[in-house]
Write the structure tokens for this entry.
Amino acid sequence: MGTRSEPYEAPAIQTFATELVAWRMEADLTQTALAETLGYTPQWISQIESSKSVSSKTFAENLDTFFKTNGLFQRLWKRIIDTRHQAILPPGFTEYVEREVEASQVRIYQLTLVHGLLQTESYIRAVVGHEQDPDTAERLVAERLKRQEVLTRKDAPTAWFTLDEASLRREIADPEIMREQLAHLLAMTERPNISIDIVPMSAKYYSGLTGSFTILSFLDAPDVVYGEIAGQGMLITDPRTVASFAVRYNSLRGDALRVEESRTLINSVMEEYG
């Protein structure tokens, strides 16, 4: 986990930062003074205290030795490592997932990949395993599979998925995995609460090409929109902005094939994988 322009939201990282500030202030030290004492740069101290960088084990040990904390910072560092899979989640995503389980309706447009709620275990592993250590990848796989239960539980929301054809054709894994994934999409369309339609390549330019997004609707709360760009998540609650996304979703669905035609296209692409 490297330096970020925005703070990590992971509680363990934020707690480390808060404790470092508290101990430094108690010792009446500036960031520069602490950095010079421990042999680091003021910029490094600043990044740690703002939760934009993650401590190394050595840095944690040095803090414990200097402040005589009886191992506090080493314990906090271990907590960061034990929960590091949470730290790589985009800002805003944790809050989104909390709301996702409460939604009565879900409208999703996905441009480049099969949406996470529709991914098979093998497909998930191919996606989240990219540049992740095995332990972190497995935790992310397990969490995504658990999250998918929102679609199959007793009181599951009504879910509309609109996917660009490119998401079916992007070979992010071996042909066998892609074929399994597309077969899974067909199986999910059999569920009464799920609708999947595809925007074909023949649509050329349409409004969905500007990016993926999700609209959550609730029985007793206003709709919200979630989207990601360059690894940064954004949960939108402004009513006017949310309404504009609803209009966009209805518009791009006009470019999509009907459900049965979409099933035919999914099956056709699946057969191309052998």
Summary: The first helix runs from residue 11 to 26.
